[in-house]
Amino acid sequence: MAQVRGCELPDDLLYDVQNNIWYRENDDGTVTVGMTTIAGAMAGQIVAITPKRAGRKVVPGRSCATVESGKWVGPAKLLSGGEVVEVNKDIVSSPGLANSEPYGNGWLLKVKVDDWSSIKSQLTAGTDVAAPYESKMDADGFEGCNP
Fold first, then answer.
1. 79, part of any domain
2. How far apart are CA 108 and CA 65, in angstroms?
3. Domain-embedded: residue 140
4. Is residue 33 part of a domain?
5. Per-residue confidence in pLDDT tens, the chain, 147 aa
6. What's the domain range around 111?
7. 24, 12 in Cβ contact below 8 A?
8. Which residues of 117-146 are buried (b: 16+ CB within 10 A; e: fewer)?
9. Full-model pTM
10. What is the count of structural domains for the chain?
11. In CATH, what number is assigned to the domain containing residue 90?
Protein backbone atom coordinates (compact mmCIF):
# COMPACT_ATOMS: atom_id res chain seq x y z
CA MET A 1 0.00 0.00 0.00
CA ALA A 2 1.31 3.43 -0.96
CA GLN A 3 1.64 6.00 1.82
CA VAL A 4 1.86 9.62 0.72
CA ARG A 5 2.19 12.17 3.53
CA GLY A 6 0.26 9.88 5.88
CA CYS A 7 -2.47 9.13 3.32
CA GLU A 8 -3.10 5.49 2.47
CA LEU A 9 -3.62 4.45 -1.15
CA PRO A 10 -4.20 0.69 -1.62
CA ASP A 11 -2.28 -0.97 -4.43
CA ASP A 12 -5.27 -2.94 -5.76
CA LEU A 13 -7.27 0.13 -6.81
CA LEU A 14 -7.19 2.48 -9.78
CA TYR A 15 -7.11 6.23 -9.14
CA ASP A 16 -8.40 9.40 -10.75
CA VAL A 17 -5.80 11.54 -9.00
CA GLN A 18 -7.23 14.87 -10.20
CA ASN A 19 -10.63 14.16 -8.62
CA ASN A 20 -9.43 12.10 -5.60
CA ILE A 21 -11.63 9.15 -6.62
CA TRP A 22 -10.75 5.44 -6.58
CA TYR A 23 -12.15 2.66 -8.79
CA ARG A 24 -12.37 -1.08 -8.09
CA GLU A 25 -13.30 -3.50 -10.88
CA ASN A 26 -16.04 -6.00 -10.00
CA ASP A 27 -16.61 -9.44 -11.52
CA ASP A 28 -20.05 -8.43 -12.85
CA GLY A 29 -18.67 -5.74 -15.19
CA THR A 30 -19.39 -2.84 -12.83
CA VAL A 31 -16.92 -0.72 -10.91
CA THR A 32 -17.18 0.40 -7.31
CA VAL A 33 -16.10 4.00 -6.75
CA GLY A 34 -15.25 6.00 -3.65
CA MET A 35 -13.29 8.93 -2.35
CA THR A 36 -9.65 8.61 -1.33
CA THR A 37 -8.30 9.27 2.16
CA ILE A 38 -6.92 12.46 0.64
CA ALA A 39 -10.41 13.66 -0.33
CA GLY A 40 -11.64 12.96 3.19
CA ALA A 41 -8.70 14.69 4.83
CA MET A 42 -9.05 17.76 2.62
CA ALA A 43 -12.81 18.02 3.24
CA GLY A 44 -12.66 17.37 6.98
CA GLN A 45 -15.33 15.36 8.79
CA ILE A 46 -17.99 14.49 6.22
CA VAL A 47 -21.51 15.08 7.52
CA ALA A 48 -23.68 14.31 4.46
CA ILE A 49 -23.40 12.47 1.15
CA THR A 50 -26.15 12.59 -1.46
CA PRO A 51 -25.32 10.18 -4.32
CA LYS A 52 -27.14 9.90 -7.62
CA ARG A 53 -29.85 7.27 -7.42
CA ALA A 54 -29.62 3.81 -9.00
CA GLY A 55 -30.75 3.93 -12.62
CA ARG A 56 -29.45 7.47 -13.14
CA LYS A 57 -26.73 8.36 -15.62
CA VAL A 58 -23.41 9.90 -14.64
CA VAL A 59 -21.85 12.25 -17.18
CA PRO A 60 -18.03 12.06 -17.52
CA GLY A 61 -16.35 14.77 -15.45
CA ARG A 62 -19.55 15.57 -13.57
CA SER A 63 -20.86 14.81 -10.12
CA CYS A 64 -21.93 11.36 -8.98
CA ALA A 65 -22.64 12.63 -5.46
CA THR A 66 -22.74 15.81 -3.41
CA VAL A 67 -20.47 15.73 -0.39
CA GLU A 68 -20.82 18.03 2.60
CA SER A 69 -18.43 18.58 5.48
CA GLY A 70 -18.19 21.24 8.14
CA LYS A 71 -15.99 23.34 5.83
CA TRP A 72 -16.90 22.29 2.30
CA VAL A 73 -19.82 21.34 0.05
CA GLY A 74 -19.09 20.05 -3.43
CA PRO A 75 -19.26 17.30 -6.00
CA ALA A 76 -17.56 13.92 -6.11
CA LYS A 77 -16.69 13.87 -9.82
CA LEU A 78 -16.20 10.77 -11.93
CA LEU A 79 -13.85 10.62 -14.89
CA SER A 80 -16.18 7.97 -16.32
CA GLY A 81 -19.74 8.13 -17.52
CA GLY A 82 -22.27 5.38 -17.10
CA GLU A 83 -25.27 4.18 -15.17
CA VAL A 84 -25.46 4.00 -11.39
CA VAL A 85 -26.44 0.42 -10.53
CA GLU A 86 -26.13 0.55 -6.74
CA VAL A 87 -25.83 3.19 -4.04
CA ASN A 88 -24.10 2.45 -0.75
CA LYS A 89 -26.99 2.99 1.67
CA ASP A 90 -24.54 2.85 4.61
CA ILE A 91 -22.68 5.93 3.38
CA VAL A 92 -25.96 7.86 3.15
CA SER A 93 -26.96 7.02 6.72
CA SER A 94 -23.38 7.19 8.11
CA PRO A 95 -21.42 9.64 5.92
CA GLY A 96 -18.45 9.54 8.30
CA LEU A 97 -17.59 6.16 6.79
CA ALA A 98 -16.05 8.14 3.92
CA ASN A 99 -13.48 9.38 6.45
CA SER A 100 -13.04 6.27 8.60
CA GLU A 101 -13.35 3.47 6.00
CA PRO A 102 -12.90 5.06 2.55
CA TYR A 103 -11.72 1.83 0.91
CA GLY A 104 -14.07 -0.51 2.78
CA ASN A 105 -17.60 0.30 3.90
CA GLY A 106 -17.18 3.94 2.84
CA TRP A 107 -17.55 3.40 -0.93
CA LEU A 108 -20.02 5.65 -2.78
CA LEU A 109 -21.63 3.68 -5.58
CA LYS A 110 -21.35 1.01 -8.23
CA VAL A 111 -21.44 2.08 -11.85
CA LYS A 112 -21.78 0.30 -15.18
CA VAL A 113 -19.16 2.40 -16.95
CA ASP A 114 -19.48 3.39 -20.59
CA ASP A 115 -16.31 2.32 -22.45
CA TRP A 116 -14.46 1.02 -19.39
CA SER A 117 -11.32 0.07 -21.36
CA SER A 118 -10.86 3.69 -22.46
CA ILE A 119 -11.47 5.06 -18.96
CA LYS A 120 -9.25 2.43 -17.33
CA SER A 121 -6.30 3.52 -19.48
CA GLN A 122 -6.66 7.07 -18.06
CA LEU A 123 -6.52 5.95 -14.42
CA THR A 124 -3.38 5.44 -12.33
CA ALA A 125 -2.65 2.02 -10.83
CA GLY A 126 -2.24 1.93 -7.05
CA THR A 127 1.31 0.70 -7.43
CA ASP A 128 2.16 3.85 -9.45
CA VAL A 129 0.09 6.47 -7.62
CA ALA A 130 2.57 7.86 -5.05
CA ALA A 131 4.45 10.26 -7.35
CA PRO A 132 1.33 11.74 -9.02
CA TYR A 133 -0.25 12.31 -5.60
CA GLU A 134 2.92 13.87 -4.23
CA SER A 135 2.83 16.36 -7.13
CA LYS A 136 -0.90 17.04 -6.66
CA MET A 137 -0.42 17.66 -2.94
CA ASP A 138 2.35 20.15 -3.71
CA ALA A 139 0.15 21.92 -6.26
CA ASP A 140 -2.83 22.00 -3.87
CA GLY A 141 -0.74 23.09 -0.88
CA PHE A 142 -1.98 20.04 1.03
CA GLU A 143 0.33 18.90 3.85
CA GLY A 144 -1.15 15.42 4.18
CA CYS A 145 -3.54 13.27 6.14
CA ASN A 146 -1.63 13.62 9.43
CA PRO A 147 -0.16 17.14 9.36
1. yes
2. 8
3. no
4. yes
5. 888 999 999 999 999 999 999 999 999 999 999 999 999 999 999 999 999 999 999 999 999 999 999 888 999 999 999 999 999 999 999 999 999 999 999 999 999 999 999 999 999 999 999 999 999 999 999 999 975
6. 2-133
7. yes
8. eebbeebbebeebbeebeebbeeeebebbe
9. 0.95
10. 1
11. 2.40.50.100
